[in-house]
Amino acid sequence: MVTHVRAEEQGDERGALLAFVEEQRGGIRRALLGLTEEQAASRPSASELSLGGLLKHVAEVEQGWVARAKGEQPAVKRDESNWHECFVLTEGETVASQLAYWEKVAAETEAFLRSVPSLDDTFALPNDPWFPPEGRVSMRWLALHLIRETARHAGHADIIRESLDGRTAFELVAMEQGTSWS
User: Which residues lie below 8 Å from residue 171, measured CB to CB, with a gap of 6+?
Assistant: First the structure.
């Protein structure tokens, strides 16, 4: 099952932000349609990126950001010693397991963003060089960051998929809907 923000829930700011995040998630999910595990793990360009790795990365990053906003630690602690594992499926991980995990993360993201009293509420960031230097960001910033992060990687996914078999985003939308793109 895929999380979808219903049309009547898109009329407010939270609903609109969540709908944009979900739209970008869909681009990554569609890039994986019909692929084998081997295809999802392949790297058809000079980049180290694969579709399976991108999937794992976006799910992990989304979970981590929401955890930080809740004042919790991310489920997976990344540092210089294991950062490379963020972009590859490791032993026992599959596209299906990562999609299921991301679906759970997406539901938690939606529930959390709908539950916070205000999108103006802020949370503290760790003092790491890859986080914004301001030290605190708002829930609105979090939602916008998730849109930006997911959209960036959805673009990567488009390029990787087209490099694998020539299928474009339009063809994948049609494939998802059980129609054809002419």
Answer: 181
| CB-based contact 23:4 (threshold 8 Å) | no
| Among 6-10, 17-21, 174-178, the range of highest mean pLDDT | 17-21
Please tell me what DSSP assigns to residue 86.
Answer: G
Name the token pair of 137.
């960001």
DSSP H helices, the chain, are: 13-31, 37-41, 51-69, 95-115, 139-165, 169-177
Nearest by Cα to 88 from 56, 59, 63, 62? 56
φ and ψ at residue 142, rounded to 5 degrees: -55, -50
**Sign of the CA dihedral 114, 152, 176, 180?**
positive
The number of residues in the chain equals 182
Residue 73 DSSP code: -
Q: State the Cα–Cα distance between residues 19 and 5, nearest whole angstrom.
A: 6
Q: CA torsion 97→103→105→109, rounded to 10°?
A: 170
Q: Residue range 66-88: average pLDDT? A: 91
- Placement of tokens 């990053």 in the chain: 61
The reported pTM is 0.90
* Cα R_g (the chain), whole angstroms: 17
How many of the other CB atoms lie within 10 Å of CB of 84? 12
